[in-house]
Amino acid sequence: PNPDTATGRVEMPQGFLWGTATAAYQVEGAARTDGRRDSIWDTFSTIPGAVINGDDGTDACDHYHRYREDVALMRDLHLGAYRFSTSWARVHPDGGAVNPAGLAFYDRLVDELLSADLLPWLTLYHWDLPQALEEAGGWTNRDTAYRFAEYAVTMHEALGDRVGVWTTLNEPWCSAFLGYTAGVHAPGRQSRPDGLAAAHHLMLAHGLGIQALRERAPAANLGLTLNFTVADPVDPADPADVDAARRIDGQFNRIFLDPILRGEYPADVLEDVAPYGLLDHVRDGDLDIISTPIDTLGVNYYNGGAVSALPQESGSGGGGTRPEGVREADDAAPVRETSSPHPAADGVHTHSRGLPLTDMGWEVQPEGLTRLLVRLQEEYTGPRGVAMYVTENGAAFPDVVGPDGAVDDQDRLSFIDGHLRATKDAIDAGADVRGYFAWSLLDNFEWALGYTKRFGIVRVDYETQERTVKSSGRWYATVARDNVIPARDDTTRP
Ligand code: GBH
Protein backbone atom coordinates (compact mmCIF):
# COMPACT_ATOMS: atom_id res chain seq x y z
CA PRO A 1 0.00 0.00 0.00
CA ASN A 2 1.07 3.54 -0.78
CA PRO A 3 1.93 5.44 2.44
CA ASP A 4 0.35 8.63 1.03
CA THR A 5 -3.00 6.97 0.46
CA ALA A 6 -2.90 4.79 3.59
CA THR A 7 -4.28 7.39 6.00
CA GLY A 8 -4.23 10.86 4.41
CA ARG A 9 -6.78 12.84 2.43
CA VAL A 10 -7.21 11.27 -1.01
CA GLU A 11 -8.75 12.95 -4.02
CA MET A 12 -10.39 10.58 -6.46
CA PRO A 13 -10.13 11.12 -10.23
CA GLN A 14 -12.49 13.72 -11.66
CA GLY A 15 -15.81 12.24 -12.70
CA PHE A 16 -15.42 9.15 -10.52
CA LEU A 17 -18.88 7.56 -10.17
CA TRP A 18 -20.26 6.96 -6.68
CA GLY A 19 -23.11 4.58 -6.11
CA THR A 20 -24.67 1.83 -4.09
CA ALA A 21 -25.97 -1.54 -5.23
CA THR A 22 -28.91 -3.82 -4.46
CA ALA A 23 -30.55 -6.82 -6.13
CA ALA A 24 -34.22 -7.44 -6.91
CA TYR A 25 -34.86 -10.51 -4.77
CA GLN A 26 -32.87 -9.08 -1.86
CA VAL A 27 -34.81 -5.81 -1.55
CA GLU A 28 -38.03 -5.67 -3.56
CA GLY A 29 -40.41 -7.91 -1.63
CA ALA A 30 -43.88 -7.86 -3.23
CA ALA A 31 -43.18 -11.39 -4.39
CA ARG A 32 -46.81 -12.12 -5.30
CA THR A 33 -47.75 -8.64 -6.51
CA ASP A 34 -48.82 -7.54 -10.01
CA GLY A 35 -48.43 -10.94 -11.59
CA ARG A 36 -44.93 -11.86 -10.42
CA ARG A 37 -44.43 -15.62 -10.21
CA ASP A 38 -41.87 -17.70 -8.34
CA SER A 39 -38.18 -17.49 -9.06
CA ILE A 40 -35.79 -20.26 -8.01
CA TRP A 41 -35.17 -18.32 -4.79
CA ASP A 42 -38.84 -18.41 -3.79
CA THR A 43 -38.76 -22.19 -4.26
CA PHE A 44 -35.36 -22.74 -2.66
CA SER A 45 -36.37 -20.74 0.43
CA THR A 46 -39.11 -23.29 1.15
CA ILE A 47 -36.62 -26.19 1.46
CA PRO A 48 -36.20 -26.93 5.19
CA GLY A 49 -32.77 -25.78 6.36
CA ALA A 50 -31.86 -24.08 3.07
CA VAL A 51 -32.17 -20.52 4.40
CA ILE A 52 -31.47 -19.67 8.01
CA ASN A 53 -34.63 -19.13 10.11
CA GLY A 54 -36.71 -20.16 7.08
CA ASP A 55 -36.41 -16.55 5.85
CA ASP A 56 -37.32 -15.59 2.28
CA GLY A 57 -37.63 -12.49 0.08
CA THR A 58 -41.44 -12.29 0.14
CA ASP A 59 -41.34 -8.92 1.91
CA ALA A 60 -37.62 -8.08 2.12
CA CYS A 61 -37.22 -4.27 2.26
CA ASP A 62 -40.51 -3.62 0.44
CA HIS A 63 -38.48 -1.57 -2.05
CA TYR A 64 -41.23 -2.33 -4.60
CA HIS A 65 -43.52 0.03 -2.71
CA ARG A 66 -40.91 2.27 -1.05
CA TYR A 67 -38.66 2.99 -4.04
CA ARG A 68 -39.56 6.71 -3.98
CA GLU A 69 -38.33 7.03 -0.41
CA ASP A 70 -35.23 4.98 -1.23
CA VAL A 71 -34.40 7.10 -4.28
CA ALA A 72 -34.83 10.27 -2.21
CA LEU A 73 -32.45 8.80 0.35
CA MET A 74 -29.83 8.16 -2.34
CA ARG A 75 -30.19 11.72 -3.57
CA ASP A 76 -29.73 13.01 -0.01
CA LEU A 77 -26.59 10.87 0.22
CA HIS A 78 -25.18 12.71 -2.85
CA LEU A 79 -24.92 9.51 -4.84
CA GLY A 80 -24.53 9.58 -8.60
CA ALA A 81 -25.75 6.10 -9.56
CA TYR A 82 -27.94 3.23 -8.42
CA ARG A 83 -27.03 -0.31 -9.40
CA PHE A 84 -30.18 -2.43 -9.20
CA SER A 85 -31.36 -5.61 -10.84
CA THR A 86 -34.62 -6.40 -12.57
CA SER A 87 -36.65 -9.48 -11.71
CA TRP A 88 -37.03 -11.82 -14.69
CA ALA A 89 -39.93 -13.52 -12.87
CA ARG A 90 -41.79 -10.20 -12.67
CA VAL A 91 -41.31 -9.47 -16.34
CA HIS A 92 -41.70 -12.98 -17.81
CA PRO A 93 -43.44 -14.82 -14.93
CA ASP A 94 -43.44 -18.18 -16.75
CA GLY A 95 -40.28 -17.48 -18.70
CA GLY A 96 -42.45 -16.74 -21.77
CA ALA A 97 -45.09 -14.04 -22.18
CA VAL A 98 -44.41 -10.50 -20.92
CA ASN A 99 -46.26 -9.29 -17.80
CA PRO A 100 -46.84 -5.54 -18.39
CA ALA A 101 -47.85 -4.89 -14.77
CA GLY A 102 -44.52 -6.23 -13.50
CA LEU A 103 -42.50 -4.47 -16.15
CA ALA A 104 -44.16 -1.18 -15.23
CA PHE A 105 -42.39 -1.15 -11.86
CA TYR A 106 -39.04 -0.62 -13.59
CA ASP A 107 -40.54 2.19 -15.64
CA ARG A 108 -41.50 3.97 -12.43
CA LEU A 109 -38.16 3.25 -10.77
CA VAL A 110 -36.10 4.49 -13.72
CA ASP A 111 -38.17 7.68 -14.02
CA GLU A 112 -37.78 8.32 -10.31
CA LEU A 113 -34.00 7.84 -10.55
CA LEU A 114 -33.68 10.17 -13.51
CA SER A 115 -35.69 12.88 -11.84
CA ALA A 116 -33.37 12.61 -8.82
CA ASP A 117 -30.31 12.86 -11.12
CA LEU A 118 -29.20 9.31 -10.41
CA LEU A 119 -27.77 7.17 -13.19
CA PRO A 120 -29.72 3.91 -13.54
CA TRP A 121 -27.20 1.01 -13.72
CA LEU A 122 -29.33 -1.95 -14.68
CA THR A 123 -28.40 -5.60 -14.08
CA LEU A 124 -30.62 -8.11 -15.87
CA TYR A 125 -29.81 -11.19 -13.82
CA HIS A 126 -28.90 -11.30 -10.15
CA TRP A 127 -29.67 -15.00 -9.50
CA ASP A 128 -33.49 -15.07 -9.67
CA LEU A 129 -34.32 -17.39 -12.57
CA PRO A 130 -38.06 -17.90 -13.16
CA GLN A 131 -38.93 -21.23 -11.54
CA ALA A 132 -40.72 -22.29 -14.74
CA LEU A 133 -37.37 -22.18 -16.55
CA GLU A 134 -35.67 -24.17 -13.79
CA GLU A 135 -38.31 -26.84 -14.30
CA ALA A 136 -37.19 -27.02 -17.92
CA GLY A 137 -33.60 -27.65 -16.75
CA GLY A 138 -32.56 -24.19 -15.60
CA TRP A 139 -29.05 -23.16 -16.49
CA THR A 140 -28.12 -26.73 -17.41
CA ASN A 141 -30.49 -26.31 -20.37
CA ARG A 142 -28.91 -24.45 -23.29
CA ASP A 143 -32.33 -23.03 -24.19
CA THR A 144 -32.27 -20.85 -21.03
CA ALA A 145 -29.56 -18.73 -22.66
CA TYR A 146 -31.89 -17.93 -25.57
CA ARG A 147 -34.75 -17.13 -23.18
CA PHE A 148 -32.37 -14.71 -21.43
CA ALA A 149 -31.65 -12.88 -24.68
CA GLU A 150 -35.42 -12.46 -25.23
CA TYR A 151 -35.74 -11.04 -21.72
CA ALA A 152 -32.87 -8.61 -22.44
CA VAL A 153 -34.75 -7.40 -25.52
CA THR A 154 -37.97 -6.96 -23.53
CA MET A 155 -36.14 -4.80 -21.00
CA HIS A 156 -34.40 -2.80 -23.67
CA GLU A 157 -37.62 -2.13 -25.55
CA ALA A 158 -39.19 -0.86 -22.33
CA LEU A 159 -36.28 1.14 -20.91
CA GLY A 160 -33.67 1.61 -23.63
CA ASP A 161 -34.72 5.22 -24.17
CA ARG A 162 -33.73 6.02 -20.55
CA VAL A 163 -31.20 3.40 -19.42
CA GLY A 164 -27.70 3.63 -20.87
CA VAL A 165 -25.79 1.11 -18.75
CA TRP A 166 -26.64 -2.58 -19.07
CA THR A 167 -25.09 -5.43 -17.11
CA THR A 168 -26.09 -8.88 -18.28
CA LEU A 169 -25.16 -11.05 -15.29
CA ASN A 170 -24.14 -10.55 -11.71
CA GLU A 171 -21.55 -13.12 -10.57
CA PRO A 172 -22.17 -16.15 -12.78
CA TRP A 173 -19.71 -18.03 -10.53
CA CYS A 174 -22.28 -17.90 -7.74
CA SER A 175 -25.19 -18.84 -10.00
CA ALA A 176 -23.32 -21.83 -11.42
CA PHE A 177 -21.20 -23.17 -8.58
CA LEU A 178 -23.06 -22.10 -5.45
CA GLY A 179 -26.37 -22.94 -7.14
CA TYR A 180 -25.63 -26.15 -9.06
CA THR A 181 -22.47 -27.60 -7.44
CA ALA A 182 -22.33 -26.59 -3.75
CA GLY A 183 -26.11 -26.42 -3.44
CA VAL A 184 -25.85 -23.55 -0.97
CA HIS A 185 -27.82 -21.25 -3.29
CA ALA A 186 -30.89 -21.80 -5.47
CA PRO A 187 -31.71 -24.10 -7.12
CA GLY A 188 -29.72 -26.18 -4.60
CA ARG A 189 -28.34 -28.84 -6.90
CA GLN A 190 -25.09 -30.60 -5.97
CA SER A 191 -23.38 -31.73 -9.12
CA ARG A 192 -20.03 -30.89 -10.67
CA PRO A 193 -21.21 -31.49 -14.25
CA ASP A 194 -24.32 -29.36 -13.66
CA GLY A 195 -22.24 -26.47 -12.30
CA LEU A 196 -19.99 -26.52 -15.35
CA ALA A 197 -22.93 -26.79 -17.75
CA ALA A 198 -24.54 -23.84 -15.96
CA ALA A 199 -21.33 -21.79 -16.16
CA HIS A 200 -21.13 -22.31 -19.92
CA HIS A 201 -24.79 -21.55 -20.54
CA LEU A 202 -24.65 -18.44 -18.33
CA MET A 203 -21.75 -17.15 -20.42
CA LEU A 204 -23.67 -18.00 -23.59
CA ALA A 205 -26.63 -16.04 -22.20
CA HIS A 206 -24.31 -13.12 -21.51
CA GLY A 207 -22.93 -13.18 -25.06
CA LEU A 208 -26.36 -13.50 -26.69
CA GLY A 209 -27.63 -10.71 -24.45
CA ILE A 210 -24.74 -8.42 -25.40
CA GLN A 211 -25.32 -9.12 -29.11
CA ALA A 212 -29.04 -8.34 -28.83
CA LEU A 213 -28.41 -5.15 -26.87
CA ARG A 214 -25.54 -3.97 -29.09
CA GLU A 215 -27.68 -4.34 -32.19
CA ARG A 216 -30.38 -2.14 -30.63
CA ALA A 217 -28.17 0.26 -28.65
CA PRO A 218 -24.79 0.66 -30.34
CA ALA A 219 -23.79 3.51 -28.01
CA ALA A 220 -24.87 1.93 -24.72
CA ASN A 221 -22.39 0.93 -22.03
CA LEU A 222 -22.60 -2.88 -21.97
CA GLY A 223 -20.91 -5.39 -19.72
CA LEU A 224 -21.15 -7.89 -16.92
CA THR A 225 -20.10 -8.19 -13.31
CA LEU A 226 -17.88 -11.00 -12.06
CA ASN A 227 -16.93 -11.83 -8.49
CA PHE A 228 -13.28 -12.46 -7.86
CA THR A 229 -11.05 -13.99 -5.28
CA VAL A 230 -7.34 -13.40 -4.80
CA ALA A 231 -5.85 -16.80 -4.00
CA ASP A 232 -2.37 -16.70 -2.50
CA PRO A 233 -0.27 -19.82 -1.91
CA VAL A 234 0.46 -20.32 1.78
CA ASP A 235 4.09 -21.07 0.88
CA PRO A 236 5.01 -19.43 -2.43
CA ALA A 237 8.11 -21.63 -2.58
CA ASP A 238 6.07 -24.85 -2.36
CA PRO A 239 4.95 -25.99 -5.84
CA ALA A 240 1.96 -27.84 -4.34
CA ASP A 241 0.68 -24.64 -2.71
CA VAL A 242 1.30 -22.69 -5.91
CA ASP A 243 -0.74 -25.31 -7.75
CA ALA A 244 -3.55 -25.04 -5.19
CA ALA A 245 -3.69 -21.27 -5.80
CA ARG A 246 -3.65 -21.85 -9.57
CA ARG A 247 -6.66 -24.17 -9.32
CA ILE A 248 -8.71 -21.72 -7.26
CA ASP A 249 -7.78 -18.82 -9.53
CA GLY A 250 -8.67 -20.96 -12.54
CA GLN A 251 -12.02 -22.25 -11.34
CA PHE A 252 -13.09 -18.97 -9.72
CA ASN A 253 -11.69 -16.19 -11.92
CA ARG A 254 -10.20 -17.39 -15.20
CA ILE A 255 -12.99 -19.85 -16.09
CA PHE A 256 -15.11 -16.71 -16.77
CA LEU A 257 -12.46 -14.12 -17.63
CA ASP A 258 -10.80 -16.09 -20.41
CA PRO A 259 -13.88 -17.08 -22.43
CA ILE A 260 -15.44 -13.62 -22.07
CA LEU A 261 -12.37 -11.46 -22.66
CA ARG A 262 -10.09 -13.78 -24.64
CA GLY A 263 -12.52 -16.09 -26.41
CA GLU A 264 -11.12 -19.34 -25.00
CA TYR A 265 -11.27 -21.55 -21.94
CA PRO A 266 -7.93 -21.72 -20.09
CA ALA A 267 -6.13 -24.96 -20.99
CA ASP A 268 -5.21 -25.80 -17.39
CA VAL A 269 -8.82 -25.39 -16.22
CA LEU A 270 -10.08 -27.60 -19.05
CA GLU A 271 -7.60 -30.23 -17.92
CA ASP A 272 -8.65 -29.95 -14.26
CA VAL A 273 -12.37 -30.27 -15.01
CA ALA A 274 -11.98 -32.81 -17.84
CA PRO A 275 -13.94 -35.58 -16.04
CA TYR A 276 -17.07 -33.44 -15.74
CA GLY A 277 -18.17 -32.89 -19.31
CA LEU A 278 -17.78 -29.12 -19.78
CA LEU A 279 -16.80 -29.52 -23.42
CA ASP A 280 -19.96 -31.54 -24.17
CA HIS A 281 -21.84 -28.24 -23.94
CA VAL A 282 -19.49 -26.11 -26.02
CA ARG A 283 -20.67 -25.86 -29.64
CA ASP A 284 -18.85 -24.31 -32.57
CA GLY A 285 -19.24 -20.56 -32.45
CA ASP A 286 -20.12 -20.38 -28.73
CA LEU A 287 -16.83 -18.77 -27.76
CA ASP A 288 -17.25 -16.12 -30.45
CA ILE A 289 -20.66 -15.27 -28.99
CA ILE A 290 -19.34 -15.32 -25.42
CA SER A 291 -16.43 -13.01 -26.30
CA THR A 292 -18.57 -10.39 -28.05
CA PRO A 293 -16.82 -7.14 -27.07
CA ILE A 294 -18.02 -5.37 -23.91
CA ASP A 295 -17.39 -1.85 -22.64
CA THR A 296 -17.29 -2.44 -18.91
CA LEU A 297 -16.18 -5.15 -16.51
CA GLY A 298 -17.89 -4.89 -13.14
CA VAL A 299 -15.60 -6.09 -10.36
CA ASN A 300 -17.08 -7.46 -7.14
CA TYR A 301 -14.52 -8.02 -4.42
CA TYR A 302 -15.08 -9.07 -0.85
CA ASN A 303 -12.07 -11.14 0.13
CA GLY A 304 -9.19 -13.34 -0.93
CA GLY A 305 -7.66 -16.33 0.78
CA ALA A 306 -4.45 -18.21 1.48
CA VAL A 307 -4.58 -21.73 0.07
CA SER A 308 -2.45 -24.80 0.46
CA ALA A 309 -2.27 -28.45 -0.51
CA LEU A 310 -2.17 -29.34 3.18
CA PRO A 311 -4.67 -28.53 5.92
CA GLN A 312 -3.69 -25.84 8.40
CA GLU A 313 -2.03 -27.17 11.55
CA SER A 314 -4.19 -26.38 14.52
CA GLY A 315 -2.84 -23.40 16.39
CA SER A 316 -0.97 -21.86 13.47
CA GLY A 317 -2.43 -18.78 11.87
CA GLY A 318 -5.12 -18.42 14.49
CA GLY A 319 -8.81 -18.15 13.85
CA GLY A 320 -8.70 -14.57 12.61
CA THR A 321 -9.42 -11.50 14.65
CA ARG A 322 -13.10 -11.37 15.30
CA PRO A 323 -14.47 -8.07 16.54
CA GLU A 324 -16.63 -8.40 19.61
CA GLY A 325 -20.06 -9.76 18.82
CA VAL A 326 -18.93 -11.36 15.57
CA ARG A 327 -19.85 -15.03 15.54
CA GLU A 328 -18.01 -17.98 14.10
CA ALA A 329 -19.26 -18.20 10.49
CA ASP A 330 -20.69 -21.67 11.14
CA ASP A 331 -22.88 -20.62 14.05
CA ALA A 332 -25.23 -18.92 11.66
CA ALA A 333 -24.92 -21.37 8.79
CA PRO A 334 -28.01 -23.03 7.35
CA VAL A 335 -28.36 -26.63 8.49
CA ARG A 336 -28.59 -28.29 5.08
CA GLU A 337 -25.54 -30.31 3.97
CA THR A 338 -23.63 -28.62 1.16
CA SER A 339 -20.58 -29.51 -0.92
CA SER A 340 -17.57 -27.58 -2.22
CA PRO A 341 -18.37 -25.15 -5.02
CA HIS A 342 -15.12 -25.92 -6.85
CA PRO A 343 -15.54 -28.71 -9.38
CA ALA A 344 -11.90 -29.82 -9.29
CA ALA A 345 -10.13 -28.52 -6.19
CA ASP A 346 -10.31 -31.54 -3.89
CA GLY A 347 -7.40 -31.36 -1.50
CA VAL A 348 -7.12 -27.57 -1.59
CA HIS A 349 -7.32 -26.07 1.89
CA THR A 350 -7.87 -22.49 2.97
CA HIS A 351 -5.69 -21.18 5.79
CA SER A 352 -6.46 -18.37 8.17
CA ARG A 353 -3.92 -15.54 8.07
CA GLY A 354 -5.10 -14.10 11.33
CA LEU A 355 -6.55 -11.06 9.56
CA PRO A 356 -9.66 -9.34 10.92
CA LEU A 357 -12.91 -11.02 9.88
CA THR A 358 -16.31 -9.65 8.98
CA ASP A 359 -19.55 -11.15 10.28
CA MET A 360 -19.48 -13.46 7.23
CA GLY A 361 -16.17 -14.90 8.48
CA TRP A 362 -14.40 -13.34 5.46
CA GLU A 363 -10.92 -11.88 5.92
CA VAL A 364 -10.53 -8.12 5.59
CA GLN A 365 -7.73 -7.62 3.06
CA PRO A 366 -8.00 -4.38 1.05
CA GLU A 367 -4.63 -4.73 -0.67
CA GLY A 368 -6.06 -7.82 -2.39
CA LEU A 369 -8.35 -5.42 -4.27
CA THR A 370 -5.37 -3.35 -5.44
CA ARG A 371 -3.60 -6.41 -6.78
CA LEU A 372 -6.80 -7.72 -8.39
CA LEU A 373 -7.56 -4.48 -10.25
CA VAL A 374 -3.98 -4.07 -11.48
CA ARG A 375 -3.87 -7.66 -12.68
CA LEU A 376 -7.21 -7.37 -14.47
CA GLN A 377 -6.01 -4.18 -16.16
CA GLU A 378 -2.77 -5.74 -17.34
CA GLU A 379 -4.00 -9.18 -18.36
CA TYR A 380 -7.62 -8.70 -19.43
CA THR A 381 -9.28 -5.30 -19.64
CA GLY A 382 -6.44 -2.95 -20.59
CA PRO A 383 -5.50 -4.58 -23.89
CA ARG A 384 -9.19 -4.54 -24.96
CA GLY A 385 -10.02 -1.00 -23.83
CA VAL A 386 -12.56 -2.29 -21.29
CA ALA A 387 -13.26 0.02 -18.34
CA MET A 388 -13.64 -1.28 -14.79
CA TYR A 389 -16.01 -0.27 -12.04
CA VAL A 390 -16.03 -1.77 -8.56
CA THR A 391 -19.68 -2.82 -8.71
CA GLU A 392 -19.78 -4.34 -5.21
CA ASN A 393 -17.67 -4.10 -2.10
CA GLY A 394 -18.79 -3.90 1.50
CA ALA A 395 -19.10 -5.81 4.73
CA ALA A 396 -21.53 -7.38 7.16
CA PHE A 397 -21.05 -6.49 10.80
CA PRO A 398 -23.45 -6.98 13.71
CA ASP A 399 -24.68 -3.42 14.07
CA VAL A 400 -25.47 -2.01 17.47
CA VAL A 401 -28.45 0.32 17.64
CA GLY A 402 -27.89 3.13 20.14
CA PRO A 403 -30.58 4.37 22.51
CA ASP A 404 -31.31 7.21 20.07
CA GLY A 405 -31.69 4.72 17.22
CA ALA A 406 -28.31 5.66 15.74
CA VAL A 407 -25.97 3.01 14.30
CA ASP A 408 -22.32 3.94 14.72
CA ASP A 409 -20.79 1.32 12.43
CA GLN A 410 -17.13 2.36 12.50
CA ASP A 411 -16.16 -1.18 11.41
CA ARG A 412 -18.10 -0.90 8.13
CA LEU A 413 -16.91 2.68 7.62
CA SER A 414 -13.27 1.57 7.99
CA PHE A 415 -13.83 -1.37 5.66
CA ILE A 416 -15.13 0.87 2.88
CA ASP A 417 -12.48 3.51 3.60
CA GLY A 418 -9.72 0.90 3.28
CA HIS A 419 -11.07 -0.51 0.04
CA LEU A 420 -11.49 2.95 -1.50
CA ARG A 421 -7.87 3.67 -0.68
CA ALA A 422 -6.96 0.31 -2.23
CA THR A 423 -8.92 1.28 -5.35
CA LYS A 424 -7.00 4.57 -5.58
CA ASP A 425 -3.71 2.67 -5.26
CA ALA A 426 -4.77 0.53 -8.22
CA ILE A 427 -5.72 3.62 -10.25
CA ASP A 428 -2.33 5.15 -9.48
CA ALA A 429 -0.74 1.93 -10.72
CA GLY A 430 -2.57 2.26 -14.03
CA ALA A 431 -5.91 0.51 -13.55
CA ASP A 432 -8.79 2.18 -15.40
CA VAL A 433 -11.34 2.13 -12.56
CA ARG A 434 -14.11 4.66 -13.01
CA GLY A 435 -16.45 4.20 -10.09
CA TYR A 436 -17.35 2.38 -6.90
CA PHE A 437 -20.65 0.94 -5.66
CA ALA A 438 -20.99 0.12 -1.99
CA TRP A 439 -22.82 -3.11 -1.22
CA SER A 440 -25.36 -2.33 -0.08
CA LEU A 441 -27.65 0.67 0.08
CA LEU A 442 -29.90 -1.22 2.50
CA ASP A 443 -29.66 -4.13 4.89
CA ASN A 444 -31.39 -6.88 2.93
CA PHE A 445 -32.11 -10.58 2.36
CA GLU A 446 -28.61 -12.08 2.49
CA TRP A 447 -29.49 -15.24 0.51
CA ALA A 448 -28.93 -18.46 2.50
CA LEU A 449 -28.18 -16.35 5.58
CA GLY A 450 -31.57 -14.65 5.45
CA TYR A 451 -31.87 -11.44 7.43
CA THR A 452 -29.14 -12.36 9.93
CA LYS A 453 -26.35 -10.45 8.12
CA ARG A 454 -26.47 -6.72 7.57
CA PHE A 455 -24.48 -5.12 4.72
CA GLY A 456 -26.37 -1.80 4.46
CA ILE A 457 -24.98 1.69 4.88
CA VAL A 458 -28.63 2.29 5.76
CA ARG A 459 -30.27 0.19 8.48
CA VAL A 460 -33.63 -1.43 7.80
CA ASP A 461 -35.96 -2.23 10.70
CA TYR A 462 -37.78 -5.25 9.28
CA GLU A 463 -40.74 -4.75 11.65
CA THR A 464 -41.50 -1.18 10.59
CA GLN A 465 -39.50 -0.92 7.33
CA GLU A 466 -37.97 2.22 8.78
CA ARG A 467 -34.65 3.28 7.19
CA THR A 468 -31.87 4.82 9.34
CA VAL A 469 -28.66 6.08 7.76
CA LYS A 470 -25.69 4.56 9.61
CA SER A 471 -22.42 6.42 10.32
CA SER A 472 -20.92 4.67 7.29
CA GLY A 473 -23.74 6.08 5.14
CA ARG A 474 -23.21 9.64 6.37
CA TRP A 475 -19.48 9.32 5.82
CA TYR A 476 -19.98 7.83 2.34
CA ALA A 477 -22.24 10.77 1.45
CA THR A 478 -19.42 13.23 2.15
CA VAL A 479 -17.02 11.13 0.11
CA ALA A 480 -19.45 11.15 -2.82
CA ARG A 481 -20.17 14.86 -2.47
CA ASP A 482 -16.52 15.92 -2.29
CA ASN A 483 -15.00 13.16 -4.44
CA VAL A 484 -12.48 12.90 -1.63
CA ILE A 485 -11.66 10.27 0.97
CA PRO A 486 -11.09 12.36 4.09
CA ALA A 487 -8.01 11.75 6.24
CA ARG A 488 -8.59 8.81 8.55
CA ASP A 489 -7.97 10.83 11.68
CA ASP A 490 -10.48 13.51 10.68
CA THR A 491 -12.24 14.10 13.96
CA THR A 492 -15.43 15.23 12.25
CA ARG A 493 -16.05 11.78 10.84
CA PRO A 494 -19.62 10.76 11.59
C1 GBH B 1 -22.32 -10.81 -3.50
O1 GBH B 1 -21.81 -12.08 -3.66
C2 GBH B 1 -23.68 -10.77 -4.09
O2 GBH B 1 -23.65 -10.21 -5.39
C3 GBH B 1 -24.69 -10.06 -3.24
O3 GBH B 1 -25.97 -10.36 -3.71
C4 GBH B 1 -24.51 -10.46 -1.80
O4 GBH B 1 -25.51 -9.96 -0.96
C5 GBH B 1 -23.17 -9.96 -1.35
O5 GBH B 1 -22.17 -10.44 -2.17
C6 GBH B 1 -22.81 -10.33 0.08
O6 GBH B 1 -22.73 -11.71 0.25
O7 GBH B 1 -14.73 -18.83 0.50
O8 GBH B 1 -15.60 -18.02 2.60
O9 GBH B 1 -13.79 -16.85 1.54
C7 GBH B 1 -20.69 -12.42 -2.89
C8 GBH B 1 -19.89 -13.52 -3.52
C9 GBH B 1 -18.60 -15.45 -3.18
C10 GBH B 1 -18.07 -13.47 -1.93
C11 GBH B 1 -17.81 -16.28 -2.20
C12 GBH B 1 -17.24 -14.31 -0.98
C13 GBH B 1 -15.80 -16.31 -0.84
C14 GBH B 1 -16.21 -16.68 0.53
N1 GBH B 1 -19.10 -14.26 -2.56
N2 GBH B 1 -16.76 -15.48 -1.62
S1 GBH B 1 -14.98 -17.66 1.35
UniProtKB/TrEMBL annotation:
Disordered: region residues: 309-351
> Per the UniProt record, which EC number(s) apply here?
3.2.1.21
Q: Does the keyword Hydrolase apply?
A: yes
Q: Name one GO molecular function term.
A: beta-glucosidase activity
Segment forming the signal sequence: none
Report keywords, A-Z: Glycosidase, Hydrolase
Question: SUPFAM superfamilies from the entry?
Answer: (Trans)glycosidases (SSF51445)
Keyword Hydrolase among record annotations: yes
InterPro entries according to UniProt: GH, GH_1_N_CS, Glyco_hydro_1, Glyco_hydro_1_AS
Show the active-site residues: E392 (nucleophile)
Name-wise, this protein is beta-glucosidase
Q: Which organism is it from?
A: Cellulosimicrobium arenosum
